[in-house]
Each structure stands twice: as structure tokens, then as C-alpha cells.
């Protein structure tokens, strides 16, 4: 059964009546059909215009669920979103970026989902719509693990919300793979740093992906970075204690030990990219 609603309300009503696989860009669904049976029902939300685009309000920035990675890469957003824009250019090929959506990336919930670490450092919230209304929850509570989310069967991810309070400073995204493009990452890091008006770090956010079942914020490292001078060797501050929340695995792309060492190196590079002189030059 193929369903193609024109409004979010119609989509929620249909989903309340029967379970269905939600389709937007289709870059995850179609490849999966090679070795899996087709879903009994498909709910195609690609015709709902209200779910696409970026709206910048006074208190929050709203990214519609159907916004593509190409659109995000070109979006006029504050420097705190530079990590997200950089990640947008790493999602598959240009052809994939033109159709793949931010909601699909989050709902697929791969440990290597490029969009998760840059959104975690922005304290992003997920808006879920259903026949009974809207609810929000932090992205860290939405992605539960490998291919697992907190979305109920009757819900549609309608938007990603970033509070203005978390959109300060500058950010960077660094990814390691076996080649430059079209690769599942071995490790990836997003960092956001905000200054106190002088030479000290007022706010720090660090997230690591591909090193645990779901991307993780490194709270201990963030706390140790606050109050540090921009002129310090920030990379030298990263220790094994800071990486403790991570739980990498051994697989064909790299060993757990290699992933941890890669994460430490990538954090250092991202911290360096966030220095004011580097960020302004970029």
C-alpha cells in the first residue's frame, strides 16, 4: 500500500490508522529493498511542503524534517552551525545530498550518522508529530542506539529545533574514513566553542560519533575546557578519562583501540579549527 498525504495532519491521521514505513528522500529505504521484503505500507511525506526549509526565530532555529543536506550546506546560519554544514557535505555523494533529508539521517540512527554529532553540540531537540499533538525531546534522548530511536509508530519526525542559547560560538566537524568521500566513518568529531568576550572559553561542547552505539557528548572534557585560554594547547588536554563514555567496537573498518586513538586525534584537530583566528580565516 502506497500513501502520499499532502499535509502533516493527513499524514498523522493515516499513520494512526495503520503502521507504515515513512518515506522522504528514500536513500535508506531503497537500498534496503535489495535483500529485504518490501514494507506492507509506505507513507510518502515528500509532498508535504511545510516540512522543508530553515526558519530562524528569535528564540530558536527550526529545520524542517524534509530539509536536504544540500540545502543545509548552503543555508545562511550562524558559525555555530559550521560543523553541521561541514557534515552535510560528507553525507554520501552530491546526488545523495540533493535528496537525503535530515530526518532520515536521524531516524535511521546509524552509529555513523554524520548529522548526529553536529546537532548534539547544538543541544538540538526533536519535534515529533502525531494525531494527538506534538512533543519534543532532546536528540540525546531520541537516538537510543544502533538503529533504535524513541519515535513511536504513530509519530513523524517533523522538525529539528536548535535553541538560540546553544547557537553561540564557532564549530568544526572532522571525520576519518578509509577514503575521502562515500565512506562510513571510522570516527568523527564535532566541537563547538564560545568565548567569554576575551581569551577564555566560556562554553564547550564535544561530541564523538562512530565510537559507540550512539554518538556521545564528552561532558568531562567540556567541563575541563571551560575557562581555558584560546592560546593553550587544547589538544594536549584530552586524556583517556575524557574518552570513557565511548564504547567502540572492532570491525572491518578499524579496531576499538584504533577508534579511540583516532577520536583523540580528531578532537584535537577540531579544537584547533575552532580557534578564533582559524574560524575567521575559514
From TrEMBL:
Domain FAD-binding PCMH-type: from-to ranges: 1-167
MF annotations from Gene Ontology: FAD binding; oxidoreductase activity
This protein's UniProt keywords: FAD, Flavoprotein, Oxidoreductase
SMART domains: CO_deh_flav_C
InterPro entries associated with the record: CO_DH_flav_C, CO_DH_flav_C_dom_sf, Diverse_Substr_Oxidored, FAD-bd_PCMH, FAD-bd_PCMH-like_sf, FAD-bd_PCMH_sub1, FAD-bd_PCMH_sub2, Mopterin_DH_FAD-bd
One Pfam family named in its UniProt record: FAD_binding_5
Protein name from the UniProt record: Xanthine dehydrogenase family protein subunit M
